[in-house]
């Protein structure tokens, strides 16, 4: 399957790109608003994989140019850019394509980080407002520590939660996620359940900040 | 230490009472609005422990009567009764006593359960409004599956999150929690971080509802 990662030059985009390229047979495409930056990062990821004995070609390009080639498009951009990014590539998506959003909204005060969803109830539901007809939206990969994901020497052994209103699209994203070694994808229900998934991210950051020896946290349900 | 569990006849109260009595040396007191019900449940817990070879006396009584005897008072009542319950025992607490709240607020729609905090931002912060001067409030035990807790044959191997604005009180509650075999207590910061802890409970319920073979879920950060 062809998977484009828009914002694939950022922290979480890098982690997902490296893990998907390293652990799965999917074709990974790196997108950015700046095509040259995407190409340069794709070359970096190729070099990282080459150092581990994998000779792969990872293409980079402008968001719209990689989105048009992909079956699954992961929108790995900050929460405030999710809808703009989807709208910018909407004409390049085909019916049956799947958009995946890992974004969550947070703010910070003296106590720590707090979940700060948009009026739609969650960033995932806010993203849904920009999704073109015929394309399905799935929320996934919200609670993964970017640094741990990007370090291919780090074991994961953690869960990610998948939300969406279309069972087939959720199934495809679940299979993609579980292609990554040590990642279990759990069905957290419909898009309406995204807030409970997204709000885990500030908790993980707060716990890492308050407990010695814990960092880059994930979680396993058991 | 003397630990009173108000609402100790309910599901989460039963689990905490049995685990604390079974795994720790603390004195556990069962409270209820109905003293006779508390006495009957305390006798049930004694019988359960006796069947495991532990001869303990667990006293039960009216909430105020057990609160006055205790150093730590766990308010194991539904979220809408937390402040009323604290106010009803406020005169029976001494300076230096610690109140512990495990409650979280949820509602439900077609997608599943959702976090529904009161205007204070979280049930824990709402509880704080009723706490008398000189008494510290700590949030803990929010995300534990009651049935699993009450089944002393079930392994835990899960985390609970502790929030509070007084470090000493948090330390005492952390020590109490970690006295339970298989329970790790993680510092999630101040009371202002309670919402991110409380909102885990609906997620755990939603994931259990949507994935075969998962039930009575807890979680481990890793």
From TrEMBL, chains A, B:
Residues 3-103 form the Pyrroline-5-carboxylate reductase catalytic N-terminal domain. InterPro entries: NAD(P)-bd_dom_sf, NpdG, P5C_Rdtase_cat_N, STEAP_metalloreductase. One of its GO terms (molecular function) is cupric reductase (NADH) activity. Pfam families: F420_oxidored. Keywords: Oxidoreductase. Signal peptide: none annotated. One of its GO terms (cellular component) is plasma membrane. Its EC number is 1.5.1.40. One of its GO terms (biological process) is NADPH regeneration. Transmembrane segments: none annotated. This is 8-hydroxy-5-deazaflavin:NADPH oxidoreductase. It comes from Halolamina pelagica.
């Amino acid at each position: 399957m062809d998977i484009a990662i828009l914002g694939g030059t950022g922290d979480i985009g890098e982690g997902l790109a490296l893990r998907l390229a390293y652990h799965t047979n999917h074709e990974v495409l790196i997108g950015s608003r700046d095509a040259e930056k995407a190409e340069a990062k794709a070359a970096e990821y190729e070099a990282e994989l080459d150092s581990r004995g994998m000779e792969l070609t990872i293409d980079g390009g402008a968001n719209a140019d990689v989105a048009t080639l992909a079956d699954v498009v992961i929108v790995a951009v900050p929460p405030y850019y999710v809808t703009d990014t989807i709208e910018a590539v909407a004409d390049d998506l085909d019916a049956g394509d799947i958009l995946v959003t890992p974004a969550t909204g947070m703010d910070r005060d003296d106590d720590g980080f707090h979940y700060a969803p948009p009026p739609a109830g969650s960033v995932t539901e806010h993203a849904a407002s920009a999704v073109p007809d015929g394309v399905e939206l799935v929320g996934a990969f919200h609670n993964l520590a970017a640094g741990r994901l990007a370090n291919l020497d780090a074991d994961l052994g953690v869960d990610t939660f998948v939300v969406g209103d279309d069972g087939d699209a959720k199934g495809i994203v679940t299979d993609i996620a579980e292609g990554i070694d040590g990642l279990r994808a759990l069905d957290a229900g419909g898009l309406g359940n995204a807030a409970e998934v997204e709000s885990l991210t500030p908790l993980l950051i707060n716990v890492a900040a308050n407990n010695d020896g814990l960092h880059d946290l994930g979680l396993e349900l058991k």
